[in-house]
Structures are given as C-alpha cells and as structure tokens.
Amino acid sequence: MVKESSGKEKKITFNIKKEENFSEWFSEIIKKAELADIRYNVKGFVVFMPWAVRCMEKVYDLLEEELQSTGHEPAWFPSVIPERNFKLEGEHIKGFSPQVFWVTHGADTKLDERMALRPTSETAMYQMYALWIQGYTDLPFKMYQRAQVWRYETKATRPFIRSREFYWIEGHDCFATEEEAEKQVLEDIRVTEKVMHKKLGVPFLALRRPEWDKFPGAVYTIGSDSLMPDGKVIQQPSTHFLGQGFAKVFNIKFTDKDGKERYVWQTCYGPAVSRILASVISIHGDDNGLVLPYNVAPIQVLIVPIYTTKNKKGIMKKAEKIKKDLIEKDIRVKIDDSEKRPGEKFFFWEMKGVPFRIEIGEKEVKTGKLTLFLRDVKKRATIHEKKIAEEIKKEGEAFDERLRKKADIWFKTRIIDCKSKEELERALQGKKIARCDFCSISKEGEKCAEVVEKQLLASVRGVRHDKFEKASGKCIFCGRPAKHVVYIAKSY
Amino acid sequence: MVKESSGKEKKITFNIKKEENFSEWFSEIIKKAELADIRYNVKGFVVFMPWAVRCMEKVYDLLEEELQSTGHEPAWFPSVIPERNFKLEGEHIKGFSPQVFWVTHGADTKLDERMALRPTSETAMYQMYALWIQGYTDLPFKMYQRAQVWRYETKATRPFIRSREFYWIEGHDCFATEEEAEKQVLEDIRVTEKVMHKKLGVPFLALRRPEWDKFPGAVYTIGSDSLMPDGKVIQQPSTHFLGQGFAKVFNIKFTDKDGKERYVWQTCYGPAVSRILASVISIHGDDNGLVLPYNVAPIQVLIVPIYTTKNKKGIMKKAEKIKKDLIEKDIRVKIDDSEKRPGEKFFFWEMKGVPFRIEIGEKEVKTGKLTLFLRDVKKRATIHEKKIAEEIKKEGEAFDERLRKKADIWFKTRIIDCKSKEELERALQGKKIARCDFCSISKEGEKCAEVVEKQLLASVRGVRHDKFEKASGKCIFCGRPAKHVVYIAKSY
Q: Which domains does chain B have, with CATH numbers?
C-alpha cells in the first residue's frame, strides 16, 4: 500500500522457496506484501497493515453474512470482564487463567476489582443472556460479535498465526433442547465449510478433539484443522457444545411450554479472521508472492495501461472506461498509472496477489479484445470488452475454484494411514497428517497422547466429526484394542 | 431484536415526552428499542445490542467509504500502548493520564512495563509512521482505523453519549507542508458534513476550540458541536491540526525533493459512531420512539401481511414477492408474520424507528397499489408494485431529506445572539446555544471562560471555523474589546 508509489520498493526480489523454507517464506511475504509490521514495541502485538486489513474485512463480511443468514444477531460486549465473573466456571478459569491480561488501575486509582481483558467472552455474555432469556419464545437465541481478544500467550507468536491480540468472531447460541444445540454445532461446521473452504479454498478436517484438548468448560469441541505447507496443522474455527455447564453457573433459564423452568443448552463458535488469512496466504501463495482468492482480494483486477506520450490519452481513456464498467458491477479495480515500468508493475502486483491483470495498449484499444493475466496459473486468457464485468465475474469464480481444487488435492495427498509408530514418525517427517488406530480419545487415552507429544512433538488432533471412521486394529502405541481412528500431526 | 416475537413486549407504552424530559426519554428509548443494556457489571461499560450495532455498522460504512474515497487506508493497531510511548509528548500525557486504564499483569506475572489501554492512538501509531515514512513520495500519508478506545471517565456515563469504552474511527494523516495539513482539517470537516449532516440529518457547528480546550498535543482543534433536545451540545467528530509536535517527538521525518530532511505536518480526526448514533436517536426520535434515517435503518421497509386463514396463502406469496424485489435492489426488508395483531406490529416497529411500512391485504393483492406508511410524518403515500424498488429508493431519499430539513430548522432557531450576561443566562435556560462577543479564545480569555463555567455551568465552545464572524462590541464578561464571536452552551 503505502510504499507502492515511492520507488523504494523497485527491487522486490523473492528468492525464498515456499516448499524449501516455509517459515522464512511466510515472514518474507508478510514483510514484502506489507501485511503486518512486527516492529511494534510490545511483545506479541503486531500492526495489521492495509492490504491485510482489507482482506480480513472481506473475511468478516463473508462470515457475518453466513451468521446473519442463519439467524444470528450482532452485538458488541465490553472488552473487560470483572474477575468475579471470570471465576464462576471452574474449568473455564483453569483453562484461561494462564492467558489473561489484567487491568488493575484507572489512572492512579487501583480498581475495586481487577478486570480481565477478554480472552473469550462466555463470562461477559452469559450473565446478560440470563437477563434476556426468559421463556421458550426467546429461543433459539443466536448472537455473535466481531471483536478482538487478548491472550497472554507463552508460545512463540507469529503474525496472523498466533499473537497476543487477535481478531475474530464469536458466536454464542442458546437452545431449548440438547438436540437443537448439537445441530448448531453442525451448522457452525457448515459455515466454516462455506466460507473457509468453498469461498477461500482452505481445506480442513472437522475433528472432535480428545477429552484432554477440548475448550475449557465444553462438553466437546470440534476443531477445524487445516494444514500449513511445513506439515504443521493449524486450528481454524472451532465450535463447542457447552451442554448446560455455563447455563447452570450463569443461571440462564427459560420457562418451557409446560410451564417448567429449564436451563438452556449452549454452543459457541470462534472463527479468527487473522488465522483464516494465515491459511489463505500460506496455502495459495507461491514463490512470486501472494495469491489471493478473488473473493477476498482488495483489488480483484489491476489495469496496466501501456502507452507512449503520443497515445497516452486514448489508452488512459479506455482504461478509465473499463474501470468504470467494472466498478459499476462491484468489482474492485485499480489502474496503476504510476511512473514505474510495466514490468515492475506486473511484478509488484503479482507479489501482492491480485488475481487478474489487464494490460491495455494500442492493440487492445483497437480490437476491443483484452488479455487477462491469471495470477494463479500465470497464463493468459482472452476476454471481450463488451461483456467485461460478466466475464470477470465468471473468471473470478473459476479462479477460486482452481485454488480450491488445487488445495484439496494437495491436502488429500498429505493425509496418510499409518500402521505403526515408525510409519507415523516417517509421515510426520514427511510433513504429513497421520491417520491411525488409537486406543481412545476419552481420558483413558491420555497416556498414549503424552507419548505422541513427548516423543514425536506432535499431537492427537481427534476423530472425524463429519463421518464415522471405524477402528479395526490395535492402538499403535499401547496395543490395546483401538476405539478410535485419530489424526496425528505436528501443530501450530 | 431478541424479544420481538416473545410476546412479552406486547404493551410497549411510551408515555414520556421528549420535549418535557429528554433525559428520561433517552433512557427509556434505549431500553424499549433494545439499543444498549446498562446492566453489565462494570461501571461505565455497556452492552451494545443488535439494533444499535446494525445502525453503527452502517455509520462505520458511511464514514469508511468517505475516508477511503479521500485516500485513507485502513489499519489495525494494537489496543495496548507501552507506558514509555505514552509519556513522550508532554501535553498529551498531561491530558490523557487521568483517563488511562492500565494493564499491569499477564496471568500472575507483573509485566516489565505496564501498558495503557489506548484512550486514543497517536502514541501507538506514530512510532510506526516514523518507520514507514522516508521520502516525499510517501506523502501524503493517510491512514485510519476502526477501533474501540477506553477512557477512565470520571464524568457520569450514559450509553452512546459517554462510556468508558466507545467505538470510533481515528484518522491520522501526515503531509509535507503545513498548508496541506490545514487543508486536511477542512476535508475532515467535509467528511463530517457529508456523513453526519447530509446522510444522517444531524446539524452541527464546526467550532475552533479555545486554547484551553484543544486536544492535548494539538496546535488547534475543530470540534463539531451538535445539539441535544435538552439544550446541551455534544461534541461530535473533532479534527486536530497537530503541527509538528508529535512528529518531532516520534521522529517522523522525510527527505524532501531538495534532499533535505524535514518533519511531517500532522492531523488527526476522530468520529465516534456510538456518539453519532446518540445524536441520531435524540434529534429524530419522537414520542412514539425512534425515527431512523433511511440511510442507517437496519430494516428500511417492514411488510405486514394482513390475512385471514382463508386468504393467507395468496397474501404471503405477494409479500414474499415484494420482499424479493426489494432485496434484489439491496433494500433492507423484513416481513413480520408473527402471531401478534397488526396494530401491535405497527406500534412495535414504529417504536424501533423503521422508516417505511407496507401493509398487504386482499385489496393490495388485487390492485397492485400499495400504501406506504412514513414513520416520520405518520402519513401514507401510495406506491406501485411494479416499480417498487425505485419508488422506495426515491422515498428513502425524501425521508432523509425531511429529517435533515426539520433538524436544520430546529437547530437554527436554537442559536441566538446575546448582548449581555443576562441575555446569555436566559438563552441557556431556554435550552439554546448563545452567540456573543467575547474577549478572546487565546490564553487571555481563560478568566472569562472560567466565569462561564462556574457561574453558568456552561462552556465557551469556540469560534466558527467555516466562516469568519467579526466581533464588533465588547466582551460581555470583562468589557474588554472583543476579538471573537463565540458560541456558549451547556454541554455533555
């Protein structure tokens, strides 16, 4: 953004290969494409820069559209939670206490009660739900907020992947029955599927987490694991079936049709837009820089006019005309008429991940036939000026479908069955997700999970929630009969 | 939102008159229309509820559209500012220290350095600007963020008007010359004019604040004062010319065309969406509830089908058809087919401020002629089903223009010239803004301003920035020759 016309960025070299050194590639792209600046002087906090913010605003739009169309209403809750709320739910406080930033003073005055900067908002929201929900006609009650949360992370932080302040949506729903709440969990997974996979091309596994890895206070957690190019999985939107635990603690009751008071059944859902962007960057990007899905790209079409002083006027006129036609159809377009050479412009905007480029020169003005450069496959297509907006929209859909299909195939090849600890080790070394028979994801399996963590520096991610996979053999760790087919991977 | 179908809100009575008791009216409308819930258990923090959030999201959209179209890029800076940054600019720390919430601990660990929850972001952003701005081609540099800020307010808090956490946009711009920066101040005022006045119908005075009332660290401040029905002004978006004070402290320099290093000239601008909504609610609302401008209303058109069991199917089909036609043209529409009686529905949605209502019964299905109820004037207009979207859009524009004109006339009558302290006192008692001759808004006038504050419980708001008003007489307080024509009012 900022420097694009400064001339200082003329020599954008991008000589780190994603496949060879993903970690460096990721850092480099964040710097070069000006996505975030890690030089802010508080550990673990970064500045999200315009190009990334514009992408994340789009991700917000996509998520909010889905949430609203499934009956969720938006609210904004306070960022601070009084300590007494925070302590109400035992498991929750145990899980989140090590991660809480505390606000203790207003100016020089010590506050009567210290306040947590919300690491998540159950304990802020549910006391209000208790006031709002009275009868069965108030249910289902579906609400979300777009918000940032703060966590005093002790793990290493990286922009977009893990930082001490991150941007997400949290949905918190209440139902009259257990069955409806469990259906909501499935609806949440469908929202993830629709937005993250269908629209942004990020494949994932919806995994029911083992007992020891669920959300603090939940009955069970379904995490969405997507994969990074270095073979580590990253948890994407997770959804939690909370049962009635929080309802009992926060006293969220309703009078049912039969006149009896009952506690509500709850779920919550937490897609982080900064993390989703991390996967989008990492999965689709290549050795020339970002490749942004048409759906989120801040600029979808870049127009580069190619002129001499003689024909400049006519060519710029044509470029402006095309820009206008595209804007009218809500296509995000920019003309780069800076003084850089065309080649430099191409290179710069390819690095920024703009899906399409149209070059307009003498020939294009005459024929009305335009060449569309496709960022992902680096090939050219011909489109016609007359129906340009329609054609771009079609190409946009095709673009995103190509990204998704490519990612799907890649993801599929990265999951392999392992019959022994040795195979598992090889799989992990080969940057893969291992699928294997495992004793159990309930408490009794925790010992084997510890082996995975300590010896293999990986973790048991859980069992498929979207389909039943039957275990037929023995746990590859303890040899007991396997109750579950689990996925094991290194993780962020 | 939540309770709309619960049946519990059946008896919405609204028997407080806005003109008679604005303060109670305001509290009542916030409760009845479910805009905010003040029962959150931290002093000065409220929950913003869906109906208000949807309005404020629209205000954000309107502001961001203007800011982007004037060359601003969006960013997200951390919410926390290390104490050392905060202390760099002397005036700034003096002004904001009494208002800062401090984060001191991460879990049980005392932080090496405590962090301010940003009350405003100069001291977060400008250290980054120093890294980003190098040469004259980097200028102008125009950036904004949508964000919430926190202030440990000691004044009484009220939802939307003043709370310890509020939602705003802050724009922070840098220029090569003083002249350009001062032009930006004017552009900021134009943005306020376009969004708050033109689109939302809230009139205001752009006033250059007296020396003693400017933003801490600014050379001068232009505040936008709009008026509440109780005769108190409320500060709306203010814009500040910062000169080079912050630039020198944060070392924001650029190499100019002549090869010399110079400090940038800065401005900042801060429209608070929660406050803007406070004015929208207060100015347009009436004794039946909210009246929302078409531009921000979460629902612009409410359709009420009126049917018997016999003709329900046909009427619902027509209602759905109209809804579809409107949605296609991006009009926000809802069918209320709940089990409430039509009269109840009318009453409820009038209270919520929905601009238009269409009732669809047997007759409407037959004739294709529809009756549009206009919330503001409580009159009916006829529209035709065939061109419904176009007609609604036209009516929407007319609706907002009516609101604006009405507010403008009201506002104009509320400003009166005063030639003496007695006239001034009467004006303030009469819920008016007084215009009078005043010695000076620079330091030498501070004594007279103290008289205003202590004796009249009002304040000197400043001089017009958009036009020059020549003082001809003597200061009505000290009798010295008046340098300025000032506006004096009670204020929030």
A: 12-284 (3.30.930.10), 301-395 (3.40.50.800), 416-491 (3.30.110.30)
